[in-house]
Amino acid sequence: MAVTKSVILCLLLSFLGNAEAALRDQVFRWEDVAAFLAGCFAVMILLIGTGFFLHEMVCRQYFKEPAAEYYAVRGELPNAYNENTRL
User: Fold this and answer.
1) Considering 39, 40, 72, 75, which has the largest number of Cβ atoms within 10 A of its Cβ?
2) Torsional class of 26: left (φ above 0), alpha (ψ -120 to 50), beta (otherwise)
């Protein structure tokens, strides 16, 4: 995992260096900068959300836990909406 992070970081730094060299003489308005930052924020949220979704759906394996598997086999999964669990 550390190797993957290092490779991604090196790629991003090289892209930033190339972009800085290509855009050095250009002038940007504050609207352009704000739109760019909003886009970066949206992509970041999308990637983080996708990562959490994949972790929940693939990595956790809810029904591999012994207690949950026991209740699932017997058909007695607890009801989370009964009077004792309501706030």
Assistant:
1) 72
2) beta
39 Cβ partners below 8 Å, 6+ apart? none
Is 53 within 8 Å of 45 (Cβ atoms)?
no
Evaluate if pTM is beyond 0.90.
Answer: no
In degrees and rounded to multiples of 5, residue 62 shows phi and psi of -55, -45
pLDDT in tens, the chain (87 residues): 678 888 888 777 777 766 666 666 677 788 888 888 999 999 999 999 998 888 777 766 655 556 666 666 666 666 666 566 555
CB neighbour list of residue 72: distance below 8 Å, 6 or more residues apart: 63
